[in-house]
Amino acid sequence: MKVDVLLGLQWGDEGKGKVVDVLTPRYDVVARFQGGPNAGHTLEFEGKKYVLRSIPSGIFQHGQVNIIGNGVVLDPVLFKEEADSLEKSGIDIKKILKISKKAHLIMPTHRILDAANEKLKGDAKIGTTGKGIGPTYTDKISRNGLRIGDILNDFEPKYNAAKAKHLTLLNALGFNPDLSEIEPKWMEAIEYIKQYELIDSEHVINKLLANEKSVLCEGAQGSLLDVDFGSYPFVTSSNTVCAGACSGLGVAPNKIGEVFGIFKAYCTRVGSGPFPTELHDDTGAKLRDIGHEYGAVTGRERRCGWIDLVALRYTIMLNGVTQLIMMKSDVLDSFETIKACVAYNVNGKEITDFPFSIENNVTPIYKELEGWKTDMTRFKCENEFPAQFKEYIKFLENELQVPITIVSVGPDREQTIIRNK
Ligand code: GDP
Ligand code: IMO
Ligand code: MG
Question: Which residues contact 159 (CB under 8 A, 6 or more apart)?
């Protein structure tokens, strides 16, 4: 068997959580491959709403195994909070969730370093989620990190050595953090994690595949936040593209099957950084308002704009997307006209290849399409789609050269339309 990968093609918050939950019944295993509690994946069903940060979005369906892979960075305190609240909802989380021993630990000092880095950057700050993601991945790459497997023996000296390094750095930068409150909580959460099955997830996943089990790999963030290909330096610190599923789970490239690329029918971004199709006008405010575009975890206002097909073609290429999933189409239900950026004007030259820099020198070139002016939120099948919406889909498929196989028309699990291919 091969693994299927599901990932965001824009700047995150495309609706990955919802779709993983919808697709999970088709799979035996759901595995997260990168990121950490910077993610906020929202699921809605039976009138309830849940936000997941580190735990895979397959957790609410029945019978699947969920895995946190080696590419993930885990904050024990936030993980315990998330797991406790799932347990209160009746989920037997300790039975169905397994954690890779090679996943890295976010320490209290990583969060403080994240805040310190942002402060030192001043106006050039990234606008991170403040969860310690950058410093934890930095320690991983510079070979100073602590891994989940480390907690199983003689952990304290390893923790103290890593902490001492962080404190030396923080003190030199003029920060003197007080850890007296957070540290005992963190250590308690480390003990809590020992109640889970800590696994060599690369072996487990490859054995499952050898036994014909199906695996869905869940990405966090989006390809435009990828550390190599995103709008650097305004990115996250992991590889959010499909290749991240290989390195973040120990799955070989020739074991990748379907790649589901998720995008919103428009575009959003949280935090700083360039965003060519951003709208600073009433239309942007209308998208934010109707789409409830506020961060799932931080509550931060999301910047809104039109769909960017230059960027989407680029991320489809990077990921080898085989199926597209369009989210939040219903948010455009009341618009008279809809715009799609088909090319960029860069210094007077029209380009369609996503360039090295998308700073102020980029002016989007738009194609305008007629709106469908129909409430689609109760639609159950594609036959009900209005003609203008069918045109919009046809236009996008033509521009992107990949079929749109699922259309989402609302946040609920049920508001999902699977198209006939
Ligand atoms: P993720 O990080 O990719 O999982 O996405 P988020 O959960 O951060 O943000 C997506 C938001 O859109 C959540 O509030 C979802 O409940 C909501 N959502 C998902 N799909 C749809 C949809 O088709 N229509 C509408 N109106 N909302 C949706
Ligand atoms: P999900 O999985 C949207 C953004 C932050 C910031 C940049 C770096 O819910 O789609 P970090 O804390 O990772 O160092 O922040 O990345 N960011 C996200 N934006 N959705 C996310 O996750 C994000 N995770 C990080 O706002 O601009
Ligand atoms: Mg999100």
Answer: 107, 146
From the CB of 57, is ligand 1 less than 6 Å away?
no
Residue scoring higher pLDDT (360 or 405): 405
Whole-angstrom distance, CA of residue 100 vs CA of residue 90: 24
Residue 2: the pLDDT is: 96
Cis peptide bond prior to 403, omega within 30° of 0? no
Could you read off the pLDDT of 94-126 as tens digits, one per residue? 999 999 999 999 999 999 999 999 999 999 999
First to last CA, the chain: 22
With a pLDDT cut of 70, the percent of the chain lying above it is 100
- 202: confidence class by pLDDT, cuts 50, 70, 90: very high
**Separation of alpha carbons 170 and 202, rounded Å:** 35
Give the tokens for residue 32. 């997260």
Take residue 202 and report the two structure tokens written for it: 């690369």
Contact 6, 218 (CB under 8 A): yes
Comparing CA positions, the residue from 16, 24, 22, 42 lying closest to residue 418 is: 22
3-state secondary structure 50-62: EEECCCCCCCCCC
Q: Does the predicted model carry a pTM greater than 0.90? A: yes
CB 264 within 8 A of CB 328: yes
Give Cα separations from 380 to 86, 218, 239, 409 (angstroms).
30, 25, 35, 9
Within 10 angstroms of residue 50's Cβ, the number of other Cβ atoms is: 20
Q: How far is the CA of 160 from the centre of ligand 3 (A)?
A: 33
Q: How far is the CA of 204 from the centre of ligand 3 (A)?
A: 28
Give catalytic status of residue 333 as yes or no.
Answer: no
**Tokens standing for residue 342:** 């088909």
CA quadruple 383, 17, 285, 279: dihedral sign = negative
Distant-in-sequence, close-in-space partners of 1: CB < 8 Å, separation ≥ 6 = 208, 209, 210, 212, 213, 214, 215, 257
63 class by beta-carbon count within 10 Å (0-12 exposed, 13-18 middle, 19+ buried): exposed
Residues with CB under 6 A from ligand 2: 8, 11-13, 35, 38-41, 126-129, 131, 133-134, 220-222, 225, 234, 236-237, 270-271
How many alpha carbons lie under 13 Å from residue 329 in its C-beta half-sphere? 29
Q: Do the beta carbons of residue 54 and residue 300 sit within 8 Å?
A: no
Q: How many CA atoms lie within 13 A of 27 on its CB side?
A: 35
| Whether pLDDT at 421 is above 70 | no
Longest Cα separation, the chain:
66
Quick check: is 41 catalytic?
A: yes
